[in-house]
């Protein structure tokens, strides 16, 4: 077995997120004749496609070559952006989103399981937090550079050209994915073929049902830890509420991603002091408290505090993903992680609906206070459950 080359994986992950079209695809749709309502429907379709593709691709990742799945995922994302480059109609944009969702589903779960199994195969599984933290760091830096570069590119090129540039980046990313070395599959291919497809899914669901620790971790990630990622779609709304120039939309994203990147790097150090579930859970509550403090101050000068909850939640996410992988006895890692992603997609939809409802009856400041309070209270509930059940 070839040694896992994590540096190539870092490059792959950086390129996978360094896509300037992220910042402008909604504007591209509007520019091509779509109304805001249709843009919202397209984004909802992305979540729908992501949900239906997630579990099947997770099962596939536990039964086939994971590196191949990452390569195909990159090419599908590139196909999405090429369709957008040529497309001018709603259904072409929707088709692109279906390719993007499938490409993302092929990668989610696959990446974590490939990393953990590769390290485990080399008796280096204790390094998972450090390696996975760096993977998330490079992904965050990639997203940050993609957003910053988008503003520069938009000064010289049309949004369609930016979509084409993103397609080229995805194709280059596929080359990096092709050069990843490591554990292709957690078991030999002959053994995998003897099992029925749903045996893998049943193995994953049985693990979640029987392991109290795993169930608590998964539920907590979906309900609390992912609040930060759920809210990133609404960062620009904060700038509008503060009545700042549009330039600050890029600024708030830079703050978010810079703090997340710092959290990704700090996770291994924090793990040395907090490695038990009962000690990790309260840390998420601290992140929600920071979000509440920002909401209470609700002023442009409080933007420094704005990054703190995402830093803390990034740390908690990495620690819990590592704890979940360590807990797994049966090898269905990708499928289990796909279950987590499905829950997160549902969570995103629910939070978006709640966010829209609250912001319609309350000032935006109180909407964020409500979400922060929910996070703190839910953390307390999970801490009580963890002490009782583990």
Q: Care to describe what's here?
A:
- The protein is an all-alpha fold.
- It folds into 2 domains: 1-195, Growth Hormone, Chain: A (Up-down Bundle); 205-390, MFS general substrate transporter like domains (Growth Hormone, Chain: A).
- It has 19 helices and no strands.
- The protein has helices at 6-17, 25-31, 36-61, 66-86, 90-107, 110-121, 128-153, 159-178, 189-194, 197-210, 212-225, 227-231, 235-242, 247-271, 277-297, 303-306, 308-327, 333-361, 364-389.
- Helix 1 (6-17) packs antiparallel against helix 8, helix 11 (212-225) packs antiparallel against helix 17 and helix 15 runs antiparallel to helix 19 (364-389).
- The protein is globular, with a radius of gyration of 20 Å.
- The chain starts with 5 loop residues before the first helix and ends with a helix.
- Mean pLDDT is 87; it is low at 188-192.
Secondary structure: number of strands: 0
Second CATH tier, the architecture of the largest domain: Up-down Bundle
Total domain units: 2
The pLDDT mean sits at 87
What is the CATH topology descriptor of the largest domain?
Growth Hormone, Chain: A
- Computed CA radius of gyration, to the nearest angstrom: 20 Å
Terminus-to-terminus distance? 37 Å
Q: What are the secondary-structure elements, in order, as H or E?
A: HHHHHHHHHHHHHHHHHHH
Low-confidence stretches: 188-192
What best-fitting shape do the alpha-carbon axes yield? globular
Please, how many helices?
19
């Amino acid at each position: 077995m070839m040694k896992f080359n994590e540096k190539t994986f870092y490059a792959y992950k950086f390129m996978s997120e360094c896509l300037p079209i992220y910042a402008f695809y909604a504007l591209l749709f509007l520019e091509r004749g779509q109304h805001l309502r249709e843009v919202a429907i397209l984004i909802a379709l992305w979540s729908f496609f992501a949900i239906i593709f997630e579990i099947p691709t997770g099962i596939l990742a536990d039964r086939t070559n994971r590196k191949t799945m990452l390569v195909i995922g990159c090419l599908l994302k590139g196909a999405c952006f090429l369709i957008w480059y040529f497309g001018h109609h709603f259904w072409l944009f929707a088709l692109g989103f279906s390719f993007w969702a499938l490409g993302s589903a092929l990668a989610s779960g696959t990446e974590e399981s490939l990393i953990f199994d590769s390290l485990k195969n080399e008796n280096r599984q204790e390094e998972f937090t450090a390696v996975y933290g760096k993977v998330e760091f490079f992904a965050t830096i990639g997203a940050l550079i993609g957003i910053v570069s988008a503003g520069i590119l938009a000064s010289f090129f049309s949004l369609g050209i930016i979509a084409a540039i993103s397609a080229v980046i995805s194709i280059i990313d596929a080359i990096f994915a092709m050069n990843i070395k490591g554990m292709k599959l957690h078991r030999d291919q002959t053994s995998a073929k003897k099992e029925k497809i749903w045996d893998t899914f049943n193995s994953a669901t049985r693990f979640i049902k029987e392991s109290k620790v795993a169930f608590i971790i998964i539920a907590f990630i979906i309900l609390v830890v992912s609040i930060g990622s759920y809210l990133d779609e609404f960062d620009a709304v904060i700038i509008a509420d503060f009545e700042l120039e549009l330039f600050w939309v890029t600024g708030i994203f830079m703050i978010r991603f810079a703090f997340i990147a710092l959290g990704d790097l700090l996770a291994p150090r924090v793990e040395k002091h907090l490695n038990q579930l009962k000690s990790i859970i309260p840390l998420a509550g601290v992140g929600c408290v920071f979000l509440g403090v920002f909401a209470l101050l609700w002023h442009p000068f409080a933007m420094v505090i704005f990054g703190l909850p995402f830093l803390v939640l990034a740390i908690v996410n990495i620690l819990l993903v590592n704890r979940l992988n360590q807990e797994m006895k049966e090898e269905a890692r990708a499928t289990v992680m796909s279950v987590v992603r499905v829950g997160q997609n549902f969570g995103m939809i629910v939070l978006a609906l709640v966010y829209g409802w609250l912001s319609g009856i309350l000032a935006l400041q109180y909407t964020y206070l409500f979400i922060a309070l929910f996070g703190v209270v839910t953390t307390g509930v999970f801490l009580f459950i963890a002490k009782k059940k583990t």
